[in-house]
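ligand=histidyl-adenosine monophosphate
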Amino acid sequence: MEAREAVPFFFGVRMEFKRLRGFKDITSDEAQRFLRIEEAARAVFERFGYEEIRTPLLEPKDLFTRAIGGETDIVQKEMYEFEDRSNERVALRPEGTASIVRAFIENDFDKTHGLAKFFYMGPMFRSERPQAGRLRQFHQVGVELIGTANPLSDAEVIHCLDVFLREAGVQNGWEIRVNNLGTFQERAGYKAKLSEFLASKVSKLCADCQKRYHTNVLRILDCKNDACREVARRAPVVSESLGAESQAHFQDVLGALRSLVWMTPIKEDPYMVRGLDYYTKTVFEIVHEGLGAQDALAAGGRYDSLVESFGGPKIGAVGFAAGVERMASLIHLKPDNDKLRSDTVFIATLGQEARKRGFSLLSNLRENHQIRAIADFDSGSLKSQLRAAIKNGARWAIIIGDDELKKGKEGTGVFQLKDLSVERGIQEEYELHDAPNVLNKKTKIVENV
Ligand code: HAM
């Protein structure tokens, strides 16, 4: 058994705490991957004309019930909802789209923005059964394009997602699946047809789908159970129930996407449905072969009725959200021994006076020279300080001892500079007052090793 760290000891009561199930600390490499995803998101979405929006984590519960649908799994089983101190029924957001539509209407963005293009990133909460790739607090990066029903905007959003995954460094192996769910009216007709087809087969379905037959029949098409899949494979497809306008819209989306010959090819999936009810016409999902059972990397679609149903203008909208943890698991950082950062210097000191000078140099480099500088005030020997430098990813170490302080042309002190990326690397000696110049060159010339 590993020795345990002592926990704080207040008034004689020892208490240990653990994370909640399905909640996670994001540290080290994963934090680096998150950063990379966020940087790619900002760069790509900016290029596509989106601006950032940050909405509250807590919203009125009914916002989600209305948008996502009262019979969906998210609303029925997964929302963290409670009564707050003023007896209002609130919920931690399970997704971003509903909040952004609310914000769009509440802030009159249709008057100020014309076409509103927002991107967002942040935590979402769903009380699902935790398993690999499925968390209760997870993160999404997404975009919402509000104010157009044009099929080219569906294509733009799907293309944007493809570019984003590539620029974030997600390893190859994703597939873009698209389907057309038509309008609510058309879908109602399809649901009736599907129910009729399934009526004589309900007993063959899994227990969940037997319930879904009465509450949310479309989701039966989405069930992973083999018996349900077998039944669903023979069911009528939604496209047969759609009118000419919806069909033409979808053909235009497919045509626009296929004209972008350099992007990942799209695949039509006539049985794809979504777990949120607000979608109309185009829906899409990105799955990745590198993910396990939870293989959805991102998903989205058009939602032409949502803005109006929240009291806003009658305008179309389309968007997507990608799962950040799932993306991060598919990003390979450089291997461990390549992790030293060329932009980082560690200041190692030996002796009282040297420690004071080292502290002042550290502060000077950070504030006046924009150099990433770190130190470990508690490490004793030079060896342990250099070990700390490597652990913290610094490629460069400055070494100052009390002896060095007496040397130099005018007795103003020198320092040794060591390149920690090279084993037994030679040390170079420089005048202490030259440290900012020397480090400016060293840290800025070479890219990260
Ligand atoms: P969604 O399909 O519910 O869509 O979620 C989008 C992505 O979030 C999923 O593909 C998955 O990568 C990730 N995700 C969802 N649940 C979990 C979980 N429990 N643990 C880890 N990752 C998860 C939406 O949320 C829509 N708002 C997307 C959208 C935007 N549609 C239009 N605009």
